[in-house]
Amino acid sequence: MRDQSAATGEARLPGKAPLLVGALLFGWLFWEPAFTLVRDWVTDPNAAYGLLLGPLALYLAYRAGLAEGRRPEPVLGILVLAGSVALRIVAGLAAELFTLRMSLIGAAAGLAIAAWGLPQIRRWWLPLALLILSVPLPAVVLATLALPLQLQASAFGAALLRWRSVPVVLSGNIIHLPGRSLFVAEACSGLRSLTALLSLGLLMGGLWLRSPALRVLLVAVSIPVAMFINGIRVFLTGFLVFFVSPEAGDGFMHLTEGWVMFLVAFAILGGVSWVLTVIEGRLPILRGPDPTAAAT
Fold it and tell me: Does the pTM of the predicted model rise above 0.90?
């Protein structure tokens, strides 16, 4: 009996060897992008939303489980994996973090395809999309996006201040008030709230809506909502500075104001989501598969 058990254990070990070797190679190749990604989530305020999106994506993938119609597609999976490994090598040589981290997600998708096929990727579309959103954009892209958002928020806020009869002169992203000038910095461009609202729109659409068109619409709506709310925040800051106290533009008051406005944006997006849910319920043609099947 002891010899038979040992033989059975030895027979099982070779079957697990490819999985073990694959896991070790995956860890060796992709530990760096995984480590630097988590590091930026913890240390970079512009990437802190990843601390929520990353674990949430993993949880949703766990809750979704494995697709019923899954079947291994090793050829396609290996092709995707090989492309991701090549991308990882090139990105490592170029020291380009965004591409390096995207290669990690691509490699994980390739392994999933090889093991369970494309139906599994379709089942995990929401966690995969959230993981992609959790990867911080390159600094050059952030700088390119931040400046137009700063100028737009400054112009909108200044227009509202003039509407409230506040004397104001706008110079780019600087709002001049009597005795005080407000500088709409990159941190106040609304880029963080835009990323957060895009993620929330994607999450709400994936959990509550069935129609792909309505999901896209909800995500698209989050863009003007974020821009509108950020302009309102600039207006309120200038209004409080002019009528209440110059200290209202700095410190705790300014930070609290930002959180309150984000909650307002979240409520608006939730209201739009509810309206789309009602529309979808009354128009059967818009309905598709139950979205909870891919997220719960």
Answer: no
